[in-house]
């Protein structure tokens, strides 16, 4: 029987407070581990900054002025977030000559103000435009699991792998179609995607102004909660877990359970059975809104495709395209063929769908597998662009529904599938319902961990 993970951040805080370790030594250990690990995980290591922030943390603690449980803890950021004095490359060589950022992104500044030491920015799918995580320019971070090299998931690939490998206790990513929840599921960690508007988006390189959201990678829901509060400039403190007894869960029988690998379904059903045994109320029902979303996308394209093309239209028409990932260029070029009049139709339809989906759920949370399959092998996807495109869409199928409906979501590890690869249980809440979702996830995590099947 597995045990729910404890808070890594609170454990570090206790050790720092007791003098068992200091922030400078912790940062040096982190930097050494990064140096000795997969070089594709980070695009830039900010050693000087991390050492400076760690020294300031130690000075505060020595003076009895520690800022709270995050003071002195290391953190990594996806290569979309501005760091003062550094070029934000968004996982692309095409931005290598851009001007350095003049200031930290507000969310970066918020966690620095909580005392955290930023050790660097992590690798990602170029311009955040895929759920697989391949990057031909900076390399592809290897999934920590599997007998052969497997993808990390994207687009926040390096952030997920940094946490899964234990290089940093937490890392920050973005999620437009699944880019936090997918890599979290593929690497066996917790991935929390916020509702839109929960955090300021200034200083974060955009993909889709409508769908872009931020998220947290962690080893436990407790750590995601601490980071969430600090990013909103609230005192980082734990939330009380919601009671499982009477917790209402809707399991859609439309789309999200189709073509799932047997182990993915088995792990999902085992988690549901454990939650029901603990007192949760599980309701399975058709969810026709998912079919409506699919029909809209077939007719008008994806919102992210329209908006990503608007961001990169000039870039892919110029010399920069030659140094970009061919798969990203191909997808962006295809988006250019969409009828631009389709975007306002999609946006108007989305407003209606968001309201109707919330009404259909009636205050319940929604549960289904984060991804229909475990992380696939890297080599076949590198060789075959058609296989890549097919796998990418299937990988994002379940999570992108939540982005279209502005659901917040948490992917929780719930066992292992083929080749001892992790699977993820996705728990979602309605727009702006993040606090209730996180409190529920804190309790659900413990039940699922106890029921999870170990790797074989």
Just give the CATH class of the largest domain: Alpha Beta
Which regions contain 5 or more consecutive residues with pLDDT less than 50? none
Written as H for each helix and E for each strand, in order along the chain, the element string is HHEHEHEHEHEEHEHEHHHHEHHEEH
- Through-space gap between termini: 14 Å
CATH architecture of the largest domain: Alpha-Beta Complex
| CATH topology (fold) name of the largest domain | Amidase signature (AS) enzymes
Largest sheet: 11 strands, mixed
Write the CATH homologous superfamily of the largest domain: Amidase signature (AS) domain
Range of helix content: 40-55%
Molecular shape = globular
Q: How many beta-strand runs? A: 11
The averaged pLDDT comes out at 97
Strand content: 5-15%
């Amino acid at each position: 029987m597995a045990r729910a993970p404890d808070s890594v951040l609170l454990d570090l805080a206790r050790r720092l407070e007791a003098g068992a370790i200091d922030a400078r030594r912790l940062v040096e250990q982190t930097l050494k581990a990064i140096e000795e690990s997969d070089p594709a995980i980070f695009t830039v290591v900010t050693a000087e900054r991390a050492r400076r922030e760690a020294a300031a943390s130690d000075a505060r603690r020595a003076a009895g002025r520690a800022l709270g449980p995050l003071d002195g803890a290391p953190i990594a950021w996806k290569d979309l977030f501005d760091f003062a004095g550094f070029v934000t490359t968004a996982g692309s060589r095409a931005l290598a000559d851009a001007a350095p950022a003049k200031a930290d992104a507000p969310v970066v500044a918020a966690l620095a103000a909580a005392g955290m030491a930023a050790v660097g920015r992590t690798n990602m799918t170029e311009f955040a435009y895929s759920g697989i995580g391949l990057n031909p320019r900076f390399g592809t971070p290897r999934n920590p699991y599997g007998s052969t090299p497997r993808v990390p998931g994207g687009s926040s690939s390096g952030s997920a792998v940094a946490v899964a490998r234990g290089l940093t206790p937490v890392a920050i990513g973005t999620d437009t179609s699944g880019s936090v929840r997918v890599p979290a599921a593929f690497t066996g960690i917790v991935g929390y995607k916020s509702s839109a508007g929960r955090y300021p988006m200034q200083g974060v390189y955009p993909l889709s102004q409508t769908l872009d959201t931020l998220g947290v990678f962690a080893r436990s829901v407790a750590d995601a909660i601490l980071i969430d509060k600090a990013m909103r400039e609230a005192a980082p403190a734990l939330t009380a877990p919601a009671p499982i007894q009477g917790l209402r869960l809707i399991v859609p029988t439309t789309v999200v359970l189709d073509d799932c690998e047997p182990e993915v379904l088995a792990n999902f059903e085992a988690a549901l059975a454990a939650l029901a045994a603990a007192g949760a109320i599980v309701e399975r029902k058709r969810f026709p809104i998912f079919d409506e979303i699919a029909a809209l996308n077939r007719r008008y394209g994806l919102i992210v495709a329209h908006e990503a093309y608007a961001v990169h239209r000039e870039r892919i028409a110029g010399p920069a395209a030659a140094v970009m990932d061919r798969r990203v260029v191909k997808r962006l070029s295809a988006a250019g063929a969409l009828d631009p009049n389709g975007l306002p139709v999609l946006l108007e339809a989305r407003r209606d769908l968001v309201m109707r989906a919330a009404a259909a759920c009636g205050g319940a949370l929604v549960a289904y597998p984060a991804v229909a399959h475990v992380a696939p092998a890297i080599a076949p996807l590198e060789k075959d662009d058609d296989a890549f495109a097919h796998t990418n869409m299937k990988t994002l199928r379940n999570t992108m529904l939540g982005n279209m409906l502005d659901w917040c979501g948490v992917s929780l590890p719930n066992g292992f599938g083929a080749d001892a690869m992790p699977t993820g249980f996705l728990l979602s809440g309605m727009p702006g319902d993040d606090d209730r979702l996180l409190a529920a996830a804190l309790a659900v995590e413990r039940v699922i961990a106890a029921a999870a099947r170990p790797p074989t």
